[in-house]
Write a structure and sequence with these properties.
The protein is an alpha/beta fold. The protein has three domains: 5-57, Electron transport complex subunit B, putative Fe-S cluster (3-methyladenine DNA Glycosylase II, Chain A, domain 3); 63-311, Dihydropteroate synthase-like (TIM Barrel, Alpha-Beta Barrel); 324-445, Rossmann fold. The chain has 18 helices and 17 strands. The strands form four sheets. An eight-stranded parallel beta sheet has the order 10-9-8-7-6-3-12-11. A hairpin with a 2-residue loop joins strand 4 (119-121) and strand 5 (124-126). Helix 11 runs parallel beside helix 12 and helix 13 (344-357) packs across helix 18 (437-445). The chain is globular. The mean pLDDT is 93.
Length: 447
């Protein structure tokens, strides 16, 4: 049973040191009770208190891992209803459905797309993570496709009503910890035994939220900890209602039988790619843990991956690049020197455009606390008083003979002050837009 903030506070060290991120032990206890903090954040809590508070400090929605090692996918582990309250932790896992009724060409095509659809953005690789294999009463083919999907680097979801099919597939991929789909009121005992035997996470499926909770509670009593929930309906409005209800009951009421991630099937909710991507996008926002598409196509997958990146990026922590000197295209002593802010998106745009110009260059990245150039200038972080000391201390004067610093056109207003602060250097005003950098460099720095 969940403990109140006061009950937790009684077990706190009461040092009020602030090292946990909040000023008092009482405030920390209240956050812990609300699922907005983790017990490990307190460096002074006793072992006895840790043991007593283990259940209270666990995330209201359990983190479930599908797959192993490099294919492992985490889902769940959420602590807030809205991302601005803190952040969402584990991005919605995206994947496709492969049925044993499909021919070899279709299977190979989907697995090829799974392997090859990779997108680099702000230093991250965006890609699908799971493949759901659906049985059509063909155990041998079910096992063969599951093995192929696992070999392709996917976390596998096994969907079947046949014990023989599960047995055949688990003989091939059981050690890879696939998600078994699904335990229902009719097969609860058999699926429970199967999941325990192979130490696999298990999906719980019923036709209403209350019935899902009832089955989950029975499985919890049997010792199952890694569950995924499916409320059965395939109507968009009904699933959205169920997702919100499950998240609210898990977070606000700390109702443990619903404290697990969910799985949704946009592939079974639409008969065309447009409606399918709309459904998938809905559940990336609210609150699907796993979303299964009918196929993986770049024009469908890429916008979903970008939406997921935006939703699951911590809104309270700007994405930043480390301050320093970045050589691009093998620069030499006479190569131009440019400077930008350490906002990740700004850095990757600027560095990418410099690279595409093929002009060897030095790029200086100034720590602006993750602000873009114009915002950093307005905040007094991308100004002459900050840039000049950084240039002196960065070591660029030892690596380049060039004494011209190219600043972003958006910050042209600082050029005069910067030349005064940075004696011995000239300041050149570069383009306002990143897309114009290649032409600027080729025009001014190509012999």
């Amino acid at each position: 049973m969940a403990l109140s903030g006061i009950q937790i506070f009684k077990m706190m060290p009461k040092k009020n040191c602030g090292e946990c991120g909040v000023p008092t032990c009482l405030a920390f206890a209240m956050n812990l009770a609300a699922g907005k903090a983790e017990l490990d954040a307190c460096p002074y809590v006793s072992d006895e208190a840790k043991q007593a508070l283990a259940s209270a400090s666990a995330p209201p929605i359990r983190t479930v891992v599908i797959g192993t090692e490099e294919t492992a996918v985490k889902t769940g582990g959420e602590t807030v209803l809205y991302r601005h309250e803190k952040t969402f932790n584990n991005p919605t896992a995206l994947g496709c459905l492969i049925s044993t009724s499909e021919d070899d060409a279709s299977v190979d095509s989907k697995l090829k797309a799974f392997r090859t659809l990779r997108y680099e953005r702000v230093g991250l690789t965006l890609k699908p993570e799971v493949v759901a294999v659906k049985d059509g009463a063909d155990p041998a083919r079910f096992a063969a496709i599951a093995k192929k999907a696992s070999a392709a680097g996917a976390a596998v979801i096994l969907i079947s009503d046949s014990p023989d099919s599960f047995k055949a597939a688990l003989a091939e991929v059981g050690k890879k910890k696939p998600l078994l789909y699904a335990a229902t009121a009719a097969n609860l005992e058999a699926m429970s035994d199967l999941a325990k035997e192979h130490d696999c996470p298990l999906t719980v499926k019923a036709d209403k939220v209350g019935n899902v909770a009832g089955l989950a509670a029975k499985l919890m009593d049997k010792g199952h900890k890694d569950l995924v929930l499916d409320t059965g309906t395939r109507k968009l409005a009904e699933i959205l209602r169920d997702q919100v209800m499950i998240r609210r009951l898990a977070l606000e009421k700390l109702y443990r039988p619903l404290g697990f991630p969910t799985i949704v099937f946009p592939c079974e909710m639409a008969d065309n790619p447009v409606d399918e991507v709309v459904a998938a996008g809905t559940f990336i926002s609210k609150y699907g843990g796993i979303a299964i598409l009918s196929d993986l196509r770049g024009e469908v997958l890429f916008p979903l991956l970008l939406q997921r990146l935006n939703i699951f990026t911590d809104p309270q922590r700007p994405m930043t690049t480390e301050q320093g000197i970045y050589p691009i295209n093998n620069p030499v002593e006479d190569s131009p020197v440019l400077i930008t802010s350490n906002f990740s998106l700004t850095y990757f745009i600027v560095s990418g455009e410099i690279e595409s110009s093929r002009v060897p260059s030095w790029l200086l990245v100034l720590n602006t606390d993750g602000l873009s150039v114009l915002t950093a200038w307005a905040a007094g972080k991308f100004v002459a008083d900050a840039i000049a000391p950084f240039v002196r201390k960065s070591g660029i004067e030892d690596r380049a003979k060039t004494r011209t610093l190219v600043i972003p056109g958006a910050a042209a207003i600082i050029s005069g002050d910067l030349e005064e602060e940075l004696s011995g250097w000239k300041v050149a005003i570069g383009p306002r837009e990143g897309a114009h950098i290649p032409a600027y460099l080729r025009q001014n720095y190509t012999k």
